[in-house]
Amino acid sequence: MTEISKAYEPQAVEEKWYAFWEKEGCFTANPASPKPAYSIVIPPPNVTGVLHMGHVLNNTIQDILARKARMDGKEVLWLPGTDHAGIATQVMVERQLKKEEGKTRHDLGREEFLKRVWAWKEKHGNIIIQQLKKLGASCDWTRERFTMDPDYSRCVQKAFVELYRKGLIYRGKRMVNWCPVSQTALSDEEVEMKPQKGFLYYFRVQVVEPVGDSEVRNPKSERSPKSEGAEGEAGEKKGGPEVDSEGRVWLTIATTRPETIPGDTAVAVNPKDTRYAHLIGKCVIRPLPINLPLEKKLIPIIADEHVDFEFGTGVLKVTPAHDKADFEIGQRHNLPIVDIMNPDGSMNTLAGDSLAGLDRFEARAVAVDRLRELGALVKEEPYENNVGFSQRADVPIEPRLSEQWFLKYPAVEQARACVAQEDADAGETTSVGRASSRAVSPQPESSERMRFHPQRWAKVYDHWLTNIQDWCISRQLWWGIGYRCGTVSPKPEIRNPKSLRMPSGATRLRLLIPMRGNRIPTSSTPGSVPGSGPSPRWVGPRRRTRSGNSIPPPTSLPDRTSFSSGSPG
Amino acid sequence: MIMAGYEFMGDMPFRNVYFTGIIRDKLGRKMSKTLGNSPDPLELIAKYGADALRFGTMRSAPLGQDVLFDEKDVELGRNFCNKLWNACRFRQMQGGEVQGEINPALLTSDDKWILLKLDQALREIGDALNTYNFNTAVQTLYRFFWSEYCDWYVEASKAILSRATSDKTAASSASGNGDGDLRANKLAVLDFVLSHTLRLFHPFLPFITEELWHGLGYSKDMPENQGGRTIMFAPWPKPLDDDFKAHYGLDASFLEMVDAKYDLVTQGRNLRRNANIPASRKVKFVFKPAQDMPAHEIEVMRLLLNAEAVEVKPDYQAPKGTPSVHTSLGELLLPLEGLVDIEAEKARLKKELEKAEAEIAKVEQKLSNPNFVEKVPPHVLQEHRQRLTDWQAKRDRARQNLEALEGR
């Protein structure tokens, strides 16, 4: 018994005991222990991170569970680590490079740049670990992981290859936020919306019958809604098609981006908009580029419920290659995608002779001039709207179609069926998707179901899994777990990164798994690959575990905003 | 992760998923750098200690709901740590070795009460942790330790501990000395409760509990790898089982009886406060018991009432105007003769009553003015309503006390 001093002085006490616990190995899990195992995988904080109150809450809860489990006589592993945080880290180092040396990562080249990132990580990356220690976190620091550790990367690559072989990972096209200056895709978090003053340009296009041959016939003007006495509010509104003295029918379209007209592959109206409903299925003559044969200028008038009656004239030009919403419309209607821009934001030859080679903003002015010359420009109005800016280069981002990798989620039905949908206390539990899951796997006993605390999240989870969409898992980054993917026609072939020789002309892609910015923060890297934790129990088909380590996969897998755990009792 | 568990391991990866809320500031806004409402946890640790930060955060975090963070919670966490520290220090200053053996024959009603309260806390905290209700667990810890243990039990214990302090050496050495045995037994109960409490608190307050665990010498009683080296591996305390309760005579009736005693004390304290007698002034209470009460119980009451004496007079005839309370244990009276100049006190109360009535009239006038009610911001209106309620309460209390003094 030592004398208890008069006043409690936390700093001295905290330092003394934390050092003691570490020195005595109190946090170190023993795989040979006969005690029942209990493990938690930390939601790895970003290696660039500093402790905030969210970390305090989350990690205090984990520490309470870990310490309680130790006192309950369990062999506890609380596995810590940091997330390489691809975009955040790369941007941070790029900023430093710019500031201190006035260079970009391209000036250094990939290899040298990555050396810098590793150096940065070694120097600053451990701040948050030290901070977690201050909080008293009883993590097993001897097993600290980094999501780009060689073993760890290997597990992730293994998972990638296995999922690819099963056909669950595939390549597809998707709209990304493209920064024409940095020439990279950006996550939504790196795009900042700013109000911009510009103009709304109204231009008119002629409506014609869709015909197989090159002859263009005018639609019969008596079928216009006015002559038919169409009813409905929309019909009474301003706008709507106009018929000129020669019986030709015209539509007026409003746009802030006339330079993208050459990429239009349809115009869309709302099917409920009585002003235009009778024109659905006909075509219009796209005014730009000017020097094209008529049949190449014909684009259809389509009906899409997402078209806003109120915007402009209610007629929308659809540019699937250069606008996210338009891309979706294009997907729904199977429209061709015409990409009229280069990666640096200049126009390519598909934009037509007068625009090709111009920067996108110069091209806007030229496009307006061309419309005016054609007599197609109706009016221009000052207009303010929100435009996404690249946080890195402070220029408007360009929605751009690019080739990305997608994951079709595996085991969805099992994952859905295993979660109890009712409170344990509420009597008989039910589980949705029960009938359909039976074919996949036997329904778990109710006591073996997974429980959500609080229970209401089970509903959210079920809804999410019911509407789940394929996950875009790729990023064009240098800092991350890499894959070299060669394209060998007719089917892309992936090989083990170590044994792969790059076929000439192959695309080279760096992938990060998992990605940020998916719909729900579902997984953090260590959790997404069970077995990549304490000992690589899952090491793929060819290499079984060598250590014979008995620590099982985590009983508790925490998430950034949620975490899970085995019963602490 | 669930899908990956099935895909790569062929099994459900875990059984329970806990969702934390979002931490917001006390006004319910999200914390952000721009708002500057995001406190730096390291500054809080430097200012209050890591345990205080943990305790404050967990206390304000209900299961799955957003957490409204207020630095006051951390301050409260620090106060709680200080309370724990002082309570352990109090035990140490009583001297003597760690007392392992509790003699059932020497247990007082207060001892049995605190053991039953400990059992209740152990059960509540165990249940709360098993269902991930961390915040319920923290609130139970708080209630048990601050209110039940420190405010009531430790104070009541002084009936035995202070009695024997003067001849401490004699008490601990001489066998057969009744006071010494009682004292040792009291220390044994304190040690039992504290060693359980420190273990219960350890997951929440890891640092201070480790320091006190060693400071009080509880580590010495434990096997090396089960609390001897560190409290981290000390066994989690189990609720008291039926055999234990039977052996120590922990009958639930003691809860009721001691609760009634403490309730009597609370009401007695109110008598003193209402009579405007400062806490430093020693007073005599008169007690008319409903049934026989052992002298020890009267002594405990005296201590808790901070009274010079509690005279047991079953046939006491109180002078007109003597403040009193009736409880299931009997009637407690506070004779004011010699303590209070009755006439001066009456005059004071009358003045107080007048002031309260004047204040009430003022606020009521404001509140009946539609111009005022409609135009002032809601918090000002709220503040006025509160003021009205407060003054009304003061008025009622003054009126009541005045009536009591006048023997009405």
CATH architecture of the largest domain in chain A: Alpha-Beta Complex
Helical residues, percent of chain B: 55-70%
Largest sheet of chain B: 4 strands, mixed
Q: Give the terminus-to-terminus CA distance of chain B.
A: 75 Å
Overall CATH class of the largest domain in chain B: Mainly Alpha
Oligomer: heterodimer
Query: How many helices of chain B?
Result: 16
User: If you consult CATH, what is the topology of the largest domain in chain B?
Assistant: Isoleucyl-tRNA Synthetase, Domain 1
How much of the residues of chain B is beta strand, in percent? 5-15%
* Total DSSP E strands of chain B: 7
The value of Rg of chain A in angstroms is 30 Å
Number of domains of chain A: 3
Give the name of the CATH architecture of the largest domain in chain B: Orthogonal Bundle
Can you tell me the residue ranges of chain B where pLDDT is under 50 for at least 5 consecutive residues? 165-177
